Amino acid sequence: MFNKNRQREDPEVGGAGMADIAFLLLIFFLLVTTIDVDTGIGLQLPPAPEENQDPPPIKERNLLNILVNVQGLVMIDDEPTPISEVKQTIKDFVTNRGQDPNLSDSPDKAIVSIKTQRQTPYKTYINMLDEVMGAYAELRNQASQSEFGVPYSQLEDEGERQQQVQDIYPKKISIAEPDEG
């Protein structure tokens, strides 16, 4: 009656529901996972000029030319400059207010022109651009401190005061097309 030598069958798990479970897990992880999106360099472009409109005349003294060459060397007005000195050079150029005849007439007329070559090292270009943006950030912070007694970053909610500081030190940066060399 009881046969002890009888072999039992191995139990099997039904595989029909496995595809459904895998699909539901896939959807779950797609919905829950966040994907980092690189934002790039945030620059506000000027409005497009009208057709047949000539560019406005610019005095040479109001234009600071920065070139980053293939070797990663930063040249400000054809003079080699270490990246660590770019910020101070720009601050001196913008805040000159006509005192030095080789620098800008006023912060409103000062234009920083950035030009690269096609094979310029990207890291050097970004470091130099950070220095340019940092110079304007420091100038605006100083103006905000002297005018309103608070750092510029705290004026984000106060549009009128923030605009007043931006009018004192407008950020006029021209990024030219790279050279082929």
UniProtKB/TrEMBL annotation:
Bilayer-crossing regions: 12-32
Location of the region described as Disordered in the Swiss-Prot/TrEMBL record: 155-181
Membrane-topology annotation of the record: Single-pass membrane protein; Single-pass type II membrane protein
Domain of life, source organism: Bacteria
Keywords annotated in UniProt: Cell membrane, Membrane, Protein transport, Transmembrane, Transmembrane helix, Transport
Localization per record: Cell membrane
Family: Belongs to the ExbD/TolR family.
Protein known as: Biopolymer transporter ExbD
Lineage, top ranks: Bacteria, Pseudomonadati, Balneolota, Balneolia, Balneolales
